[in-house]
Amino acid sequence: MSHHTIDVSGLGFAYPDGTAALEDVSFHIGHGESVAIVGANGAGKSTLLMHLNGFLMPVRGSVNIGGTPVAKGTLSDIRKTVGMVFQDPDDQLFMPSVFEDVAFGPMNLGLPVDQIEARVDDALERVGASRLKERPPYRLSGGEKRAVAIATVLAMSASILVMDEPSSNLDPRARRRLIELLAGFEHTKIIATHDLDMALELCERTIVMSGGRVTADGATRDIFTDVKLLDESGLEKPLSLQGCPICGMA
Amino acid sequence: MASLEEGLYDLGRLDRLAYLDTPIHRLDPRAKVVTTLVYLVCVVSFGKYEVLPMLPFLIYPVVLATEGNLPLGFLMRKLIAVAPFAVLVGIFNPFLDRETVMYVGNLAISGGWVSFASILVRFFLTTIAALVLIATTSFPGVCVGLASLRVPDVLVTQLLLLYRYIFVLGEETMRMARARSLRSFDGKGMGPAVYGQILGHLLLRTYARAGRLYQAMLARGFDGQVRIMRSLRFTTRDAIFVAGWSALFVVFRVYNVPLLLGRLMTGLIS
Predict the structure, then answer these.
(1) Rounded to a whole number, what is the distance in Å from the CA of B211 to chain A's nearest CA?
(2) In CA terms, which of A97, A175, A224, B105 is 20 to 30 Å from B91?
(3) A29 has which bridge partners?
(4) C-beta neighbour count of A167 within 10 angstroms
(5) DSSP 3-state helix, strand, coil percentages of chain B (rounded to 5)?
(6) What's the pLDDT at B50?
């Protein structure tokens, strides 16, 4: 898996109770690309993300990561490649201390102890959380939890980062730090978010979803200035593209 | 819901105590777990009418709490908070067992009262030992100790997750309880029916969270075994700790130390 690409073609999915969640979703994401997935609540963003590392298996169509199809037999390879950052960091940080949590993945990969320690230290340093190493996760602030959650994925050396609402529940400064952090990563990134301003800063490309379908796929700046499309998808122009509320200038 | 908030706060405080750095805290978790186990077995195995012979066991929690810099007042408060359970267990003994077993002066004391006292002493000794263990070792530390003593992984994982999520669940419960009391007036809406619904709701939320948690574990290569990387070192100091205390407990268990002391004293006086 030398190429960190994602190919989704004709993906359809319905939950066991019959609710259709995805219909005919197709796109290709290239190596090193940074893509935002936006859409109203219930548009199918989270369901789509759950297909990218095989939590959900396609009912129709297929998902390929770096040319390998997501299937039962390839799950462990897929999950090494695709690092998932969950919306609620409390779901992701389940070990007694930050160190042990970040070490959880590398331990499961069966790495030798000194390598695990090196990876944990490196991952924590990259997210600026080295000083939190010994702390238990329930005694971290929201921003710290998010940073550590990202470190848990970095420590796995994943080449594709999939993030669900990374900027939710963060105060403005923590959000700013997160954006700067993510901007510094060379990974292929997929970010599902309602924070369109963040999407504008981090992602050159945006996929818009509505009712389980892809309704637009293109350059972020073009999509976020298409008022009609945004309105139909239950979104609105990012604040940074709206006029100044005081002087009215765009 | 103040009591729940206080409970969570106290749990947090107990947790913080475990991060102190004293000779007792530095002992290998296994040493403390094993010693506590010997202590518990000795205390629990006393007969139901025995009270005095158990008292010397108090020395263990007192020494550890003092050496470990634990606030005794705080531990006592925690003990009193759970005492009603012990009282409930033994409260019927005095009514059921009315046979006189001893006299204090002219006062006849029935077996029921003695066994009630025995239950309370036992409760006190065992609970304070457990609190001291957690406060000097930390809950995860105890779990790591258990794991390396070959307690099944499933059990250790359960304990670890229980402890991690008790804080999350507690806060969730607190928020729901607050939301309810904000919209309950004159005691309406505070009844047991709503309680049931809140509990049901919490169960469903917990279930959903467990699902997400499991996904998060799978995403990082979980294969059924939680591996914890903590290097434990069992030193001579730990061995001496275990051996010394265990020997003392066995002596306390086999010989009625207060009685011997009493005899010695009366012997000296006469």
Answers:
(1) 9
(2) B105
(3) A6
(4) 22
(5) 75, 5, 20
(6) 86
Contact B226 A104 (CB under 8 A): yes
Residues 87-116 of A with CB under 8 A from B: 88, 90-92, 94-97, 100, 103-105, 107-109, 113, 116
Closest CA to A56 of A10, A5, A105, A15: A15
> How far is C-alpha B33 from the chain's CA centre?
12
Helix axis angle, B236-254 relative to B29-44, nearest 10°?
Answer: 0
Q: Do the beta carbons of residue A148 and residue A137 sit within 8 Å?
A: yes
- Alpha-carbon separation of residue A103 from A76, A128, A153, B90 (angstroms): 17, 16, 10, 47
- Cβ of B93: how many Cβ atoms within 10 Å? 20
Considering the entire predicted model, what is its pTM? 0.81
Find the chain B residues whose C-beta atoms sit closer than 8 A to any C-beta of A. 12, 15, 138-140, 143, 160-161, 163-165, 167-168, 209, 212-213, 215-223, 226-230
A58 CB near a chain B CB, below 8 Å? no
Query: Mean pLDDT score of chain B, rounded to an integer?
Result: 87
Best CA proximity match to A100, nearest among B239, B176, B164:
B164
Q: What Cα–Cα distance (Å) separates residue B257 from each residue in B44, B61, B63, B250, B252?
A: 17, 18, 18, 11, 6
Average pLDDT in the B73-90 region?
87
Looking at chain A, list the stretches that DSSP marks H as alpha helix, in order from N- to C-terminal side: 45-52, 75-81, 89-92, 98-108, 113-126, 142-154, 172-183, 196-202, 220-224, 227-232
Is B133 exposed, middle or buried, given 0-12, 13-18 or 19+ CB atoms closer than 10 A?
buried
Q: Out of B139, B209, B229, whose CB is closest to A107?
A: B229
pLDDT range class, residue B257, cuts 50, 70, 90: confident
Is the pLDDT at B2 greater than 60? The verdict is no
> Number of helices (H) and strands (E), helices first, in chain B?
12, 2
pLDDT-flagged residues of chain A (< 50): 1
* Cα A214–chain centre separation: 17
Those residues whose C-beta lies under 8 Å from the C-beta of residue B205, and which sit 6 or more positions away, are B172
pLDDT digits (tens, 9 = 90+) for B211-223: 898 989 888 888 8
B175: chain A residues, CB-CB within 8 Å: none
